[in-house]
Amino acid sequence: MILEFEFEYFGNNDYFTYLLNFYAKNYKYSLNREKNKILLQIEGDEKELSDFCENLKGISNSVFLKKFDVRITERLNDFNQSFDYCEKFFYLTHLNSSAYVEKKELSNNEWGVFCENEISLDGLYFEKINQVNFDTFLQKALEKLVNKEEIYLKNHKGSYKISLFNENFECDFLIPCDIKTIQTIFVCSQENLKLLASLEKPLIKLRLNAMFRKKYNLKFNDFKLVLAQDLFTFALCYQLYKQDFSFLSVLKIDEKEEDFEVMNLDEKVVILQGLEFIDRKARELIFSKEDKNMARISYILSSFKQEVFLLELSKKYDDILLINKELNLLKLDLPKSFKKFYEEIEKDEIGAKLLSNFSKEFPLLDEDFTLKNNFYSLFCILGRILNLDKEIYSAGEKLLKMADESKMPRGVKIDYRLKKDKSFDHARTLRSVMSFMLAGVDSVNIAYGIVESLSYFLRDIYDELRSKKQAEIAIVSGALFEHKSLLKNTLKHLKDCKLSDAPLRI
Q: How high is the pLDDT of residue 30?
């Protein structure tokens, strides 16, 4: 009998394929990958196939795995993928974590890696953790942590200061000592739990539960969490949980690479940051470039053969609406003060009347600012007009937060349009917001409308490009798409709109 497994896998790496090969190598099998499809065939009697399926259950899920099917086939393919040049995987897997828990064994993962980390008890001198010194360092680390002191771990992504969590959140993320403790302070769906426990062990921002927020009077709603990524941290958490500790607090004190972070959106996995799970050569090329963001964009474009319309909406860089891999359709030139904005608005009679009426109900702002030419900056300006915060960036973040948390089916229609010279008419957008404010529309409705209407604007440009055969698919990129309200609306309204395996930001 021959079982055929077909996996849909969108990551540009061979880690999951290597795992399949590792567990199939003692059987008669065929394994091959073409683009996003991995095909594994296993031949054997009923018991052999049953044993293999049982072993397969022990393989950690991957964030890049969309789905898989199993069927019986009659012919075993004669091609096998080579793994002679497979990149080493440094993280904890089910193989060595279960060996530690069930047998107290210190074993390697499937790639022959034991533990990548170096440890320091004083933050100055680091020593590599190995199977000889593992237990010694584990006991010393436990003593330090229980005595409310810090330890330090270092790996290929940087150095981290680790302590017991004391409810103050003065850190970058938390590590639960056991998966059971997550629900004590976080709201965690099964989908997010599955992602946290995946092969890649990503960072995920989770919502703090209402009881915990109220108890500590927290001003924020969510925080980042990651499960132990290496055997030493796993063992540390395992032993701390036995002593009734719940979380470790982690502060990154030196960064070599960004930590891998994802977001779950309607059963889609969105890669937010971190390049460690893209092809090694592509990763090295991106890191070698002075403009790493443009190198990331070039990598994204190289992944698609169709005519691409790239929506690069950033927070750090000028926005790009790119076709033909080099032509930016967006001409966005924001004024450097509110005075300049108001001058543009009152150039015509209708605008002058609107500004006059607006000044009777709301204060006209007299502030200068230096912002990037992107829609995030426009959101920040609109947030100030709505008086969401005195500080311009905080005003923009609050606008986006209101939109993300809104339960509204739709918002008011905010005016996004181009001028006759094809430059973006930012004054028209501001006028639209001011008009709704004068009409007494609440800030939540306007905030959601600002975000939703941007997706309609992008759709209209894309539809025109499709009608002219200048674009076949749209690809979203950039930190602004971390906000679920914008990403959901963009994916909803733009036909054949896709996510890349590259992170949204760098």
A: 92
